[in-house]
C-alpha cells in the first residue's frame, strides 16, 4: 500500500527545499537550473512555510503611497516586480488596484507560471538582477523586489541596478531576509549609497516573512 504523505512530512520537505536554495552559489546558471526544477511546486512549498513576504511588502508599499499627497496617489504607477518568481507580489499588487505591473526573473519556468496569473503587462525571463541589461535607466516609478535578497542569490550590490532603473523621486521597495541582512554587508552598501546621494531611506522596518524567520523591509527614495 502506498504511503500517504502527512502534512508534517510535506512541511519538512518544503523547508528542506527552501534551505537548499540558500546554499546556492549565487551564480546565475546554478540559480536558473534550481528554480527550473522547483517552479512547479514553488507556490505549494512556500505556502507550507507560511510565506507572508509578498502580501506584507505590498501592504508596506501601499501604506507609504497612502502617506503621499493626494495628487501623487497614482494607481497607474509603472511598477517592476524584480525577481517576480511565480507572480505572488504581482497578484498582491493587483488586489490593491495597481494595474501597470511588469515582471522579470532569471528563471524562464517561473516566468511561465507568473504569466498564468494574468496580472502583468509584460514579463521578461533570463534577467540577472546584477546586470539588468533589458531595462533602461529611470524606466519605472516603483521597483519592488521580494524574496530575492536572500542567501545564495544576489549580492547587496544588486541594489544599485534597482536604483538605476527607477526614476528620480521614485521608490525602490524591497525585502532582505534576516539571515541575509546579518550575514552580508547590505547595511554598509545602503549607507554608502545614501552618503553618495543616490538614495534616501524613507522607511526601514522588520516584519514577518516565513514561519522560521522574519525580514527587513526597505523603502528607498531615488535621488
CATH superfamily label: Vaccinia Virus protein VP39
Task: Bin the helical content.
Answer: 25-40%
Report how far apart the termini are: 64 Å
Task: Report the structural category.
Answer: alpha/beta
CATH architecture: 3-Layer(aba) Sandwich
| Model regions low in confidence, pLDDT < 50 over at least 5 residues | 1-12, 21-25
The ordered H/E elements are: HHHEHEHEEHEHHEE
Domain Methyltransferase: 79-170
Organism: Candidatus Thiomargarita nelsonii
Pfam families: Methyltransf_25
Protein name: Ubiquinone/menaquinone biosynthesis protein
What can you see in these coordinates?
The protein is α/β, with parallel strands linked by helices. The chain has a single domain (53-222), classed as 3-Layer(aba) Sandwich (Rossmann fold), CATH 3.40.50.150. It is built from 8 helices and 7 strands. It has helices spanning 7-21, 28-48, 53-66, 88-95, 108-115, 159-164, 178-183, 186-195; strands spanning 79-82, 101-105, 122-125, 140-149, 166-177, 199-210, 213-222. The protein has a 7-stranded mixed β-sheet, sandwiched between helices. Helix 2 crosses helix 5 (108-115). The longest helix has 21 residues, at 28-48. The protein is globular. The termini are far apart. Pfam families: Methyltransf_25. InterPro entries: Methyltransf_25 (IPR041698), SAM-dependent_MTases_sf (IPR029063). It comes from Candidatus Thiomargarita nelsonii. Residues 79-170 form the Methyltransferase domain.
Amino acid at each position: 500500500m502506498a504511503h500517504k504523505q502527512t502534512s508534517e512530512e510535506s512541511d519538512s520537505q518544503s523547508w528542506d527545499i527552501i534551505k537548499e536554495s540558500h546554499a546556492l552559489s549565487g551564480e546565475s546558471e546554478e540559480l536558473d537550473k534550481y528554480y527550473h526544477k522547483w517552479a512547479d511546486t514553488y507556490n505549494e512549498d512556500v505556502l507550507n512555510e507560511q510565506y507572508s513576504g509578498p502580501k506584507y511588502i505590498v501592504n508596506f508599499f501601499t501604506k507609504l503611497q497612502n502617506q503621499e499627497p493626494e495628487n501623487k496617489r497614482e494607481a497607474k504607477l509603472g511598477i517592476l516586480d524584480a525577481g517576480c518568481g511565480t507572480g505572488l507580489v504581482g497578484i498582491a499588487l493587483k488586489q490593491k488596484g495597481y494595474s501597470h505591473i511588469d515582471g522579470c526573473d532569471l528563471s524562464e519556468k517561473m516566468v511561465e507560471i507568473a504569466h498564468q496569473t494574468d496580472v502583468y503587462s509584460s514579463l521578461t525571463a533570463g534577467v540577472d538582477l546584477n546586470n539588468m541589461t533589458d531595462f533602461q535607466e529611470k524606466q519605472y516609478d516603483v521597483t519592488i523586489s521580494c524574496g530575492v535578497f536572500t542567501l545564495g542569490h544576489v549580492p547587496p550590490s544588486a541594489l544599485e541596478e534597482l536604483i538605476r532603473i527607477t526614476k528620480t523621486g521614485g521608490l525602490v521597495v524591497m525585502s532582505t531576509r534576516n539571515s541575509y541582512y546579518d550575514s552580508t554587508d547590505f547595511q554598509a552598501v545602503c549607507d554608502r549609497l545614501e552618503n553618495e546621494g543616490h538614495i534616501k531611506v524613507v522607511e526601514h522596518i522588520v516584519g514577518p516573512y516565513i514561519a522560521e524567520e522574519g525580514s527587513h523591509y526597505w523603502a528607498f527614495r531615488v535621488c
